[in-house]
Write a structure and sequence with these properties.
This protein is an alpha/beta fold. The protein contains nine helices and nine strands.
């Protein structure tokens, strides 16, 4: 694929742009919608040519040639769906942003029925998965970042092309830490709150907030460094430079694992047949009451 136009929603630090590079897909224009100023700073530092669109809620005002969009990438906010949270799903304002994504996809399909799309989110209840799958007319695929990185990170992916499971690269946590010792092969999933630190209870009782030990007796410990977290997400070292460590952890925890997205995009290159099924239209009256 060459010189495609990409629309990235909830773009974050533009991992999608880097994944396209790794998949060997050349980009003509990369339009990005993001509102977090720190994520935008990281993105601008790495890809100054990205076309900024601003808040997704203002999408009808965007100056975009909708007929030119070849691929839509989206990682809508996950906090409302996560099995680790309150699971308010579509009753949470962040969860409702899924419907904005669908409205945009519907709009692009009016001009280009063959547009490709990729949506990512966290593991969630089956009834939430069914709603998303029904609206998109495709089934989800589960891929664990552990296959391509040193981090256990299971995520759901919806797209309108066939996805295979990536081969296990056998990357271990001990391979990516700068110094110290670890007691497991794969890191626990990093999240946006990793900057708050960890303790023995979080780590040993709740199985979260990865720790690195400074001695083999596991008496002294530390959290992962931003560089180590970049490696967990298969980002280049220093990709998130230019903002505070607190914001680096937030951006990294909210981001995608680059090599997983690159693998999915390579599947598109290798098997480009696209489903032309229409996306389900969402009546406005239903968008706010699905789970009332």
């Amino acid at each position: 694929m060459h010189d495609i136009n990409v629309l990235s929603l909830f773009d974050g630090i533009s991992v999608g742009r880097l994944a396209l590079d790794r998949a060997g897909i050349s980009v003509k224009n990369y339009y990005a919608s993001e509102i977090d100023k720190y994520a935008i700073k990281v993105s601008e530092n790495n890809y100054p040519d990205i076309i900024r669109l601003g808040d997704i809620n203002n999408w009808q005002q965007w100056n975009v040639d909708w007929s030119s969009i070849d691929l839509i990438l989206a990682g809508s906010p996950c906090q409302s769906f996560s099995i680790a949270g309150k699971q308010l799903a579509f009753d949470d304002p962040r969860g409702k942003l899924f419907f904005v994504f669908v409205n945009i996809l519907n709009h692009v399909k009016k001009f280009n029925q063959s547009v490709k799309f990729l949506l990512e989110n966290v593991r969630m209840k089956k009834e939430f998965i069914k709603v998303i799958s029904d609206y998109l007319n495709v089934d989800q695929v589960v891929i664990d970042s552990a296959l391509l990185s040193a981090q256990s990170r299971k995520r759901l992916y919806w797209c309108n092309w066939q996805i295979t499971q990536p081969e296990d690269k056998g990357i271990l946590l001990k391979d990516i830490i700068e110094h110290g010792f670890v007691d497991r092969d794969k890191s626990y999933c990093i999240d946006a709150n990793y900057h708050k630190g960890s303790n023995f209870n979080n780590y040993f009782e709740k199985s979260r907030r990865q720790m690195v030990f400074l001695d083999k007796e596991y008496k002294d410990f530390r959290i992962l460094t931003p560089i180590e977290c970049e490696r967990l997400q298969t980002l280049p070292v220093g990709f998130t430079d230019g903002i505070s460590n607190t914001q680096r952890y937030r951006c990294l925890g909210n981001g995608w694992t680059v090599d997983v997205i690159a693998h999915i995009l390579k599947c598109l290159v290798d098997q480009p047949e696209i489903s032309n099924q229409p996306v389900v239209t969402i009546p406005k009256s239903n968008q706010l009451s699905l789970f009332n």
